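Weekend entry, working from home. Most of the wet-lab plans are on hold until the incubator is repaired, so I used the time to fold the two sequences that have been sitting in the queue since the last round of cloning. Logging both here for the record. First:
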Amino acid sequence: MATAAVLALAAGLCLGARPPVRVDSRDGERVLGNGLVELRLGADGTLAGLSRAGGQNLLANGGRGYWNGASALATQSHGYVALGGPGRVVRQSGDLAEVAFRHEPHGRWPREVFPFEAHLHYVLRRGESGFYLFTTIAYRPDMQAARFAQFAYNLRLDPRRFTTIAVDDRRRHRSHTPEEEKQAEKVMDATFRLADGRVVTKYDYCHDIELDDYHVYGWASEREGVWLIQPSAEYYPCTPFKRFLSAHQTATTPVIIWQPHCTHAGGAEVVCRRGESWRKLYGPLFFHVNAARGSDALWADARRRHAELAELWPYAWMTHDDFPVERGEVTGRLVFDDAAPARDAHVVLAPIGAHWSADVRGYHFWSRTDADGRFAIPHVRAGTHTLFAAGADQFREFVHRNVVVEAGQTRALGTLTWKPETRGRRIWQIGVADRTTGEFRNGDDYRHWGLWRRFPVQFPRGVRFIIGKSTERADWNFAHWNWHCAEPAWAIEFRMDERPKGSATLTCGIAAALPHDPRRKTHTHRGTTDVRVSVNGREVGRIALPSSGGVGYRSARHSTKYAVAEIPFDAALLRAGRNTIALRHAHSDAYKAGDPMGERGAGPGYVMYDAIRLEIAAPQPARTPPR
């Protein structure tokens, strides 16, 4: 916190030499400028122009900045419309200008389609090459019952200028053009097969919040760049295991998307009922506008700017009631009941009364434990939170309630003990229980449409995993599709020295699930999965789960929703020597490489296993009857 104060003071001293911020009215627009960048704002909050130091409009040729949302009254289906409303100058000085646009529900069409009160704020500061953006959404007790599924701010850039997309170090390259996408074959929503055979989709550029790669993304030309920078993701719902859109190409313009709320990949709607009150602030984020020679230098500068802004978070210049600048910190050490450290666990603080993966109304804060199990969560809003820990090879989470955080204070929790749930002696395990499928085949290269097309090439005889010989990276696919090659069942083979006695349990952590429709030979969001589990040919149970959201066809390797399936069976079904546990979809369709049904659409149903563990508990001694 002291470092942030020093940087803020130094920045303030430097700002005095910069031109002051100005707000003018011109041709029905508000024009904000600071000598480095200029914004032209329409009467409804649309960003009509963005330029550097009096240069050309970076939003020319079809570009603009606007916000939209998908919402409805409780009795209606969702509508997806652009939002807007009257604007006003909230603050204005030589150091800062803040302009807000208010969207009110139940006004003229299309405002009734988003029945919440929302404010979009633009902030321009002296000496900064870019602008800040944040929004608030509120529901009052006198409003009609309503819900919303998503909202976003979209910044569309000049397609003749911006050619290189960058969302992280791996996904940074020259993009296809709007004209190429316009002429492409559509194979799924927002997914196109170009003339050269490549399939491109906006979902390949999503950010997985838990990977901590969401902070910087945008577009570059050879000399200029526009980048979205966000030091924190505290306002995103269902985090940290949540994904959101970032930047992508379209048939008209390149676009940068700030999507602070959506229901994709296992998210949830915000649902408000008449008589209750709710409000939330999303942001602020920063749109950085820079100049340099070449996209590499532009990207490096954007990363440098993020590092500076991260040191200043939470921003001292924010004066909104819903954005406390003074925060607290939570520290501690997480160990198992045998005193071993709980390494690499996600430690999450979420509002009381809700599980972090389902909460959409509050703010979340998190960190990861180090090799010694220690964690520190900075910049936590004051209040009472529930602490969760997930991962560390555990199927069940750790929960510690009533963590009270005070502004300006560090809440030291000391050592917390996590008692693992076991079902006996571990015989073997496939994967690591960490809520993802990253350790499996394709789990580290999943940002592609149509990964089911790889399966018949990589596993032409199906999946046969031999404990002690096979490896997760090579021999276990990240998704168990409802399409199969030669063998529909996935086989796990292992040896036992002797025939066991007692109770056996097969525990399956499920990172994502999507049912299958055998009539249409494709996935469905209705019903449940139906994976039959057998031991040496004897069926012992099934994995029946509802849809956890569409992730397999949208370039993802896990859902926000997680499930654990336990299959108990008599250990006597196992034998000395070789044993086989098989996982088989009750409905699976034959599929081969190049099959037309895999070249279009959203593919089959699936189950994505996080980890699978076999344990055996010794038989309980018989009780001696009382005399």
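Second, folded right after the first finished:
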Amino acid sequence: MSVPAPPARRRRRAAAVGLLAAAAVTASVVAVVATSASARPAPVAFALTDETGRWFDSGVEAAGGRAFAVAELPRAGVPADADVEGLLNEGEDDAEQPVTTRRGPKRGDAGRALVRALNIDRTVAAVRAVGAAHPAVAPQAARAESLLGQLVAELATLPADAPVGLPGLAVGPELTATLATLRAAAPADTAVTVSFTVDPKRSRGERNPVGAVAPEGAQGFPFADPTGPFVGTRTVQLTDPGLYVFADSVVPDVLGAVLVDDPLTVGLDFGPRLRIAGPGGETVVPSTDDLVQSMVDDFFTATIPDNRPRPSSTEEVPWSPRHPAVPVLQQDAAGDPVLVPNLDAYFDRHFGYPRMLPRTAKPKARGIGTVLVSTPAVRAGTGTLTRIDATDWVARAVAADLAAPLPGAPLPAATGPAPAAIETRVPTAAGAFLPGGVAGAGGGLGGGDPAAPAAPGAPAAPTALTAPGAQAASPDGLAAVTVDGLARQVTVTDPQTRTVAAEMPCDAGCESVAVGPKQGGGYLAYVLNTLSNVVQVIDLDPNGDGRVTDARIAGRLSLEPLLG
């Protein structure tokens, strides 16, 4: 039966598809198959722009965003399908639909709706095309069509929000082997072209898309054009099925993704194993890995403006980001295929959506000096520089465009518009010290503050204060603070014993941390959450006993009112 979503949801998501009549399924598979539309795959065309929500604009809506595109891998004898909206289950209002897809059923046609929701109709069309083009495997194609009908009948009794290991289904092993035979008979015969266009009318300057995620072994990856940033159009060829994510090395925190689907598999292919580039090097993991799930969840939070968490200053509020309601095929560590019938419903269950966002509130503890925050262009076309007075937690916007040169700027403004970073400054008699011992009289970024006398408890020299990044340490040697954005977790470690002293959650987009002194002694950590536009203030030693096992979140400061 269908389970209605909480009132805060923008649409309904089914927790199960047991209502579907299995008896009608096999006939429905045959009934909804459509012939494919073209002989070559439809190219994916991204426009890289400064427009909110369209930083990587594919021109196609997916769950309310335009940064995610799907293309079919062309196989010999299988005409490509240019109906991208059909692959994404997009295009119809689902306000009254009780099943797992926004492309909802007509009355009495639940079996057909499930076939479409799982994209089984498209798989059957590809199977039939292979059988017609390659007579030697025509018997296997006929068998695969029958097995796909049986698969839908089995899935009709299972929840849509839970992954299904195909080998564990009665039909799974034979179906997997039969589809593999058809893929061998109809090899991929051309690539999917992805273009990136930078038009000066839509982008203030050059851009530079680079490959951040790709299937292991994909040709041409890791992708980075050696000529660097550009204006105009460049292309890349994708020859392997799976998930590809592109970042922009010029404008931080903007992303685009292409999922290349194999028409002779069930569900949209993530690829067996994914190669993920990160600051510490590359990581290769199975596509069922939690790292992949968190990365994909954060992708749709970052690229769809309506998905970003918006905490309140008065009460806890629900947060429930939206994801494409599509079937996804992953692979576990053993190499076995795992089908996620509905990515949206699965992420609801996996990440506990809707979840409650804590309210924002100023800490009772007071800091010393100033906290400087640069927020990225996820809220508007430019970033914002915010100065927080740690003595009273009053925040002021001091610059509206980080693309412009800023006097004495230690924050990475040179990397392009709207970088995300946070740092602390402590006033002394000589002026405002910057992290790493760089002094900047008059307050540095944004200017305006005259040199102030040394604050009570301020360190004699700033060299121990940390530069912005995902790790920071307190100058007294008691605490090291690490931010894990994908895990959405802050870890406080005792450097002397190298043991974890405390852990606490952070919001979506937590990626940078700095440490500054606290009035009365001790230190505070400041964690920047770029997608919620919140700075979490963590008291590293609330009771002043010299131990950090009681480190806790002391307050949450919202930057939202200061952003354009």
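Plan for Monday: verify the second prediction. Helices lie at 25-32, 84-87, 110-117, 120-133, 138-155, 172-185, 290-303, 343-351.
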